[in-house]
Write a structure and sequence with these properties.
- The chain has about 280 residues and is mostly helical.
- It has a domain of about 120 residues.
- Helices cover about 70% and strands about 0% of the residues.
- It has 16 helices and no strands.
- Helix 7 runs parallel beside helix 9.
- The longest helix has 26 residues.
- The model has no long low-confidence stretch (mean pLDDT about 95).
């Protein structure tokens, strides 16, 4: 069931992830006075309320804390969490309508929304140790099916994300060390991860040196056999602590959900995230 759950999450992920790349979202946040990375950090953490920057640092884990501090400080001096949540929801609606067209009213969308919501609602009370999931699970459900599907996948991905942070922490990895091991897996280039999370080259080199001392990576950041095994354990723990909603609706429902959402995710990836297609 774990493999089915992982595949379902991967296929649905672009349906949620598009909000981080949609021009509609950037424009909506800019109208609130959020520029640069402030829109990303504020929009994803707004469900927590106007919490201090260290709380966002804790829940986002692998970003340079200085970037998070600056972004959150700027965001909450310009606007309020409620306004950001409204802007994010409206941007998701506009992006999905612009990309999927008539498909948002199709029976396939209604069925996909129903299945995804069922999965998400099975874990509604499983919030202990999952702060970002808990915050989003407390938000009201939208009414229209294409937004129900988007909100459901938001919950499912944050549920998994909190589990992944727990696994990284248990493995003794700092945020930047987690990124180095992610790069070593070959999933995303090291420079992409370093720059997108605002770490300096010096920070990155120090992280590699620390992991090299622990026999996780070589001097050039590639996995040692021990490091690859450790990373595999992290992924296994993440999968095991994320399988519940998929297991509760069952494998046939997961496979149906995959088939229903695959064309939606592909359309969104082609328009906003073409690099994701090469990874799937």
């Amino acid at each position: 069931m774990i493999e089915v759950a992982r595949r379902t999450w991967r296929i649905l992920e672009p349906y949620h992830g598009m909000i981080y790349f949609a021009p509609e979202a950037t424009a909506a946040y800019e109208k609130l006075g959020l520029t640069g990375r402030a829109g990303y950090f504020a929009s994803r953490s707004a469900a927590l309320g106007k919490v201090p920057a260290p709380v966002v640092v804790a829940t986002f884990y692998n970003f340079n804390p200085a970037l998070v501090h600056d972004s959150i400080r700027a965001a909450w001096s310009a606007t309020e969490p409620e306004a950001v949540l409204e802007a994010r929801h409206a941007a998701a609606d506009r992006t999905l309508r612009a990309t999927l067209g008539d498909a948002i009213d199709a029976p396939e969308m209604q069925r996909a929304a129903s299945l995804a919501r069922e999965a998400a609602e099975t874990i509604a009370g499983d919030v202990v140790g999952r702060p970002l999931f808990a915050a989003h699970a407390a938000l009201p459900w939208p009414e229209e099916p294409h937004l129900v599907l988007w909100h459901a996948q938001t919950l499912l991905r944050e549920y998994r994300g909190d589990a992944h942070i727990a696994a990284l922490l248990t493995a003794g990895l700092s945020g930047i060390e987690a990124l180095v091991t992610h790069a070593a897996s070959g999933a995303v280039p090291a420079e992409t991860l370093r720059k997108s999370r605002a770490w300096s080259e010096e920070d990155w080199s120090r992280a590699i040196a620390g992991l090299r001392e622990r026999d996780w990576v070589t001097g050039d950041g590639a996995f040692t056999p021990a490091g690859a095994a450790h990373r595999e354990e992290i992924e296994k723990a993440t999968d095991e602590n994320s399988v519940t909603p998929y297991a509760r609706i069952g494998e046939p429902a997961c496979e149906e959900l995959q088939a229903l959402v695959r064309p939606f995710s592909r359309a969104l990836s082609e328009k906003l995230m073409p690099w994701m297609l090469a990874r799937r």
